[in-house]
UniProtKB/TrEMBL annotation:
Residues 38-213 form the Helicase ATP-binding domain. Belongs to the DEAD box helicase family. A motif (Q motif) lies at residues 7-35. This is ATP-dependent RNA helicase RhlE. InterPro entries: DEAD/DEAH_box_helicase_dom, DEAD/DEAH_RhlB, DEAD_box_RNA_helicase, Helicase_ATP-bd, Helicase_C-like, P-loop_NTPase, RNA-helicase_DEAD-box_CS, RNA_helicase_DEAD_Q_motif. Residues 7-35 form the DEAD-box RNA helicase Q domain. The lineage of its organism: Bacteria, Pseudomonadati, Pseudomonadota, Alphaproteobacteria, Hyphomicrobiales. PROSITE patterns: DEAD_ATP_HELICASE (PS00039), HELICASE_ATP_BIND_1 (PS51192), HELICASE_CTER (PS51194), Q_MOTIF (PS51195). Residues 388-412, 425-437, 466-479 have a biased composition (Basic and acidic residues). Residues 376-503 are annotated as: Disordered.
């Protein structure tokens, strides 16, 4: 016998088997965006959805698409997908697939992921027999389309998730090209947290008489998130961050920086202080990013340092705090950043460290977007002692921050070569001084020999040779006796050899 809560999704038109899986997962009541989006999409309408991260939009477009595909049967065409979901980042694409797997247990529905950092051959093989739902990032998908490994001409559903992020990452041109390859009679849905002019133009091009669904005004932030701003000089931000983290209430924290270099610097600082920390940004390998996220999810990593693009799609439950170490260049990114916390009705806090001398313009832009003035507060006192540092600063920084650096091996080899060259030069210098008599005149000559070597290395070509001859002439004895040859010596042997050869 089905419960009333199970019928809540079925009442929207969701397939009974999908509704049953939702109930098993503890999802009893549809969220506002789901209540508005699901009936519209099941009625074959295009959809324009404005919703923040964590609002339930993945199932808002996933449930109606899966319900429709279930009614089509299990026959698929090679190299095709019945539905295409485009996402801006690998992490978001993976999470969308996980959500689809969760609700489609016990059905014939199949999925495939096409994204960068993963073997192309495995993706091509996966698409060979065709799939029901393809989740992809635009760049890698375009590569496989050009190789004719993927055919989108028979795709019935096109979903664009977090379109504003795709705009920020420069994917809009690829998105337009992909849309042209999908069936003309397709159904399209576009979701975005903000609606800049470029996204409005994209929606006008791709959507036909769409239903507008907006569960929160553009730029607004969740009511469950407490936002605060601390005025901090940029030179003091590292110390302030260390002090904030002494509060155990900051149990699971994402720290946002503007640049990859900044993310690495903050990570090294926190690791040296003794915090469990990891970083994700565009220079990290796929394995390194997955390892960092896994540690953050299971609690072995307390602090995750991230750039805006890398953090897109992170859906980790229980994030207590978001710290804006620097305000973002794009004001809309502030909304996405703090949306990592305060999800599913839970309380969250967003702390911004603000340097008035260089960030005033960014702050004004953020406050225009969120339509409120961020409350200013003094930096709270240190809650407790800093954590115990690792055995050595070098050890802590290498273990926490440097393991995933692309150039770490190269730098170690360079350092090793420099050490060998230095030790050899030192041995030669000590050996020459041991053999030399201990008198003043010879010490002076030894100094001149050292000067000769340095001078000779510091110049190139004939200039170095001329310089060495001058030094030798000034010395009481030749700096390098083997280089001196008698000027009156003739070369009769060479002449006799030539005569013999001529004979």
């Amino acid at each position: 016998m089905k419960t009333q809560n199970s019928n809540a999704f079925e009442a929207l038109g969701v397939s009974p088997v999908l509704a049953k899986n939702l109930l098993k997962a503890g999802m009893t009541d549809p969220k506002p965006i789901q209540e508005e989006a699901i009936p519209s999409m099941l009625a074959d309408c295009d959809l324009l959805g404005i919703a923040q991260t964590g609002s339930g939009k993945t199932l808002a477009f996933g449930l109606p698409v899966l319900t429709k595909i279930l009614s089509m049967g299990d026959k698929r065409r090679p190299r095709t997908a019945r539905a295409l979901i485009l996402a801006p980042t690998r992490e978001l694409a993976v999470q969308i697939e996980e959500a689809i797997h969760m609700v489609s247990k016990g059905t014939h529905l199949s999925t495939a992921l096409i994204l960068g950092g993963v073997s192309r051959n495995s993706q091509i093989k996966r698409m060979a027999q065709g799939v029901d739902v393809l989740i992809a990032t635009p760049g890698r998908l375009m590569d496989l389309v050009h190789e004719k490994s993927v055919d989108l001409s028979k795709t019935d559903f096109l979903i664009l998730d977090e379109a504003d992020r795709m705009l920020d990452m420069g994917f809009i041109k690829d998105v337009r090209q992909i849309a042209k390859l999908v069936a003309k009679d397709r159904q399209t849905a576009l979701f975005s947290a903000t609606m800049p002019n470029e996204i409005e133009k994209l929606a006008e091009t791709l959507l036909r008489d769409p239903v507008h669904v907006e569960v929160a005004k553009q730029g607004t932030t969740a009511a469950e998130i407490n936002q605060v701003l601390h005025k901090v000089d940029r030179r003091d931000k590292k110390d302030v961050l260390n002090k904030l983290l002494t509060n155990p209430a900051l149990s699971s924290v994402i720290v946002f920086t503007r640049t990859k270099h900044g993310a690495d610097a903050v990570t090294r600082n926190l690791a040296k202080t003794g915090y469990s920390v990891a970083a994700i940004h565009g220079n990290k390998s796929q394995n390194a990013r997955q390892k960092a996220l896994k540690g953050f999810r299971d609690g072995t990593v307390r602090v995750l340092v991230a750039t805006d693009i890398a953090a897109r799609g992170i859906d980790v439950p229980g994030i207590s705090h978001v710290i804006n170490y620097e305000l973002p260049d794009e004001a809309e990114s502030y909304v996405h950043r703090i949306g990592r916390t305060g999800r599913n009705g839970a309380h969250g806090e967003a702390i911004t460290l603000y340097d008035e001398s260089i960030e005033s313009a960014r702050l004004k832009a953020v406050e225009r977007v969120i339509r409120m003035k961020l409350p200013r507060e003094d930096v709270p006192p240190q809650f407790g002692p800093l954590p115990e540092k690792p055995h050595s600063d070098r050890e802590g920084s290498e273990q926490q921050a440097g393991d995933d650096s692309h150039n770490s091996g190269r730098e170690k080899n360079k350092a090793h070569r420099r050490k060998r060259v230095f030790s050899k030069a030192t041995d030669r210098k000590q050996g020459s001084r041991k053999d030399a008599p201990h008198n003043a005149s010879h010490s002076e000559n030894a100094t001149k020999e050292d000067g000769y070597r340095v001078s000779n290395k510091s110049r190139k070509g004939n200039g170095s040779r001329r310089n060495s001859e001058k030094l030798d002439a000034r010395s009481d004895k030749p700096a390098n006796p083997k280089r001196k040859k008698p000027n009156n010596r003739k070369k009769p042997v060479r002449l006799r050899k030539s005569v013999r050869r001529a004979a």
